[in-house]
Amino acid sequence: MKQNGPWQEELERIATILSKAPLESTVKWGAEVFTYKGRNVVSYGGFKHYFAIWFYNGVFLKDPYKVLVSAQEGRTKSLRQWRFTSLDEVDERKILAYVHEAIEVEEKGLRVKPEKHQPVPLPALLAEELHRDRRLKAAFEQLSSGKQKEYCLYISEAKQEPTRQRRLEKIRPMILQGVGLNDKYK
Asked: Which of 22, 14, 179, 176 is CA-nearest to residue 95?
């Protein structure tokens, strides 16, 4: 896959290494993803300060070189990244060893079990607005619990009151339309 940006040479090297594994290459979410029997195994990409490969079920890898990190500690459950800052760090033998182990993980069918839905408290600002506007309240109650949770988190994660207020104004028409905050990405 053609790469752009500051890591072009490095990403081409990663792609060459990954293409040596017994995986199928496909494009998902605008990125090259290597799959095994239809299951996502590994992908790669460039970021501002590093380039990386990631293993979709990396949590199950033994990680003998201690190179794997969670992309978002506390949020990312099974995906693990291997980050690089220079081409000198790219070791084909080590990468392919990790890829072959990731294929074994897929063969075994190891999966992180999804957590049970944990209710999220309704932010005070949203609760006040729902109390004030019956139409909005009815539309909100028609949403799935997952979509309600997305909206609650979106507002409550804002640190400042003006940001929470702007977010409330942004989501109001979406709630009335019956769509989720992240539906356009699904």
From this structure: 14
**Portion of the chain with pLDDT greater than 70, in percent:** 97
Q: Give the fold, CATH level 3, of 8-108.
A: Aspartate Aminotransferase, domain 1 (3.90.1150)
Summarize pLDDT for 1-19 with one digit per residue, the tens. 555 578 999 999 999 999 9
Are residues 147 and 118 in contact, defined by beta-carbon separation less than 8 angstroms?
Answer: no
Give the global pTM. 0.67
What pairing do the DSSP bridges indicate for beta strands 24-28 and 51-55?
unpaired
3-state secondary structure 37-101: CCEEEEEEEECCCCEEEEECCHHHCCCCCCCEECCCCCCCCCCEEEEECCHHHCCHHHHHHHHHH
